[in-house]
Each structure stands twice: as structure tokens, then as C-alpha cells.
């Protein structure tokens, strides 16, 4: 089968556009977020969620992507010092990559450093307002420090982006019930 030069140029242009618009700037995200908000299928929503996470992890630079994987493995293994050094390095070199801020926020949360985590979540959201993972993390932190209303507000932001997120409605209901119980 012979492929014409036009097809080759088109394929190259698509590949280049994908690299140039990696991470939260990727042009595929708008469509995925639209589908995530509208789908009535939990299974489809989960697939879309996975596609979004995959795109957020694409920096457009193989070395940065390898570093990100290293940091994630270290965090998963409980090697927080290595994970922090790795994420700090990526933040320094790629400060506009929302997902590295989110990963470091997660690490700070796991370390019990909630103020640092909130700062990184705020940076994540400033770069990618639709980052349902960051909003969800903010809800976890507010819940952990006893700010049930703040947790509900953060999870309501998740609902605007990802209405079928598993467990979301139940968690919001639990937080509201807990807040009502405090007021009685």
C-alpha cells in the first residue's frame, strides 16, 4: 500500500500538534470534557476520565514524562523524599504543566502537609480549571481539617466537571449531613 505525501504531512502535523499542545493545553481535552459532562454512562465516563488523565500526563517531552513516572513510582512506594525531589525538579523546569503541581499536591497531602498541598492545588486549578482531581483533593483536605462546607464546595466543582464521578453524590450528602449534625 502506498501512502501519499499529503497523508504523511497530515500525520506529521497531527503528531506535532499533539506534542506542541501536551498536558492541559491539548486540543483533545475540550471534546473529552464535553463528553464527560454529558455522558449518561458510568462506564463511558470512566473511559473518558482515563483518557483525560493520560493526556494530562503527556508533557510533550520524553525526559519530563520519564521523570514524572519516576516521581509517581516513588510516591506510590512511600519514598516521599525522592518523589518530592523529582516533582520539585519538574515544577522548576515545566512550571506551566498543571499535572506536576497536582502530583506534588497529592504528595504533600500524603505527607500531611495540607497548606503546601492547598497551594499546589490552587496552582493546578489556575492552570487547568477543569482539573477534577485537584478539586477532589481540595475536598479531601477541607474534610480532613474539619471544613465540611469547604469540602462540599470543592466537590460541587467536581460535579460541574465530572457529574458521574463514582461516590461523588454520596460523599457530598455525607458531608452535608455531618454539617447539619454539628448545627443541631
Structure write-up:
The protein has 184 residues and is mainly α. Helix content is 77%, strand content 0%. Helix 5 (80-93) runs antiparallel to helix 6 (98-110), helix 6 runs parallel beside helix 8 (132-144) and helix 9 (148-161) runs antiparallel to helix 10. The radius of gyration is 19 Å and the shape is globular. The N and C termini lie far apart (75 Å). The model is unreliable at 1-21 (pLDDT under 50).
In short:
This protein has 184 residues and is mostly helical. It has helices at residues 5-20, 28-38, 42-56, 62-76, 80-93, 98-110, 114-127, 132-144, 148-161, 168-183.
Summarize this structure as a short list of keywords or feature phrases.
single chain, 184 residues, mainly alpha, 77% helix, 0% strand
Summarize the helices and strands and which ones pair or pack.
Layout: H1 5-20, H2 28-38, H3 42-56, H4 62-76, H5 80-93, H6 98-110, H7 114-127, H8 132-144, H9 148-161, H10 168-183
Helix pairs in contact: 2-3, 4-5, 5-6, 6-7, 6-8, 7-8, 8-9, 9-10
Radius of gyration: 19 Å
Main sheet record: none
For the terminal residues, how far apart are their CA atoms? Answer: 75 Å
- Secondary structural class: mainly alpha
Bin the strand percentage: under 5%
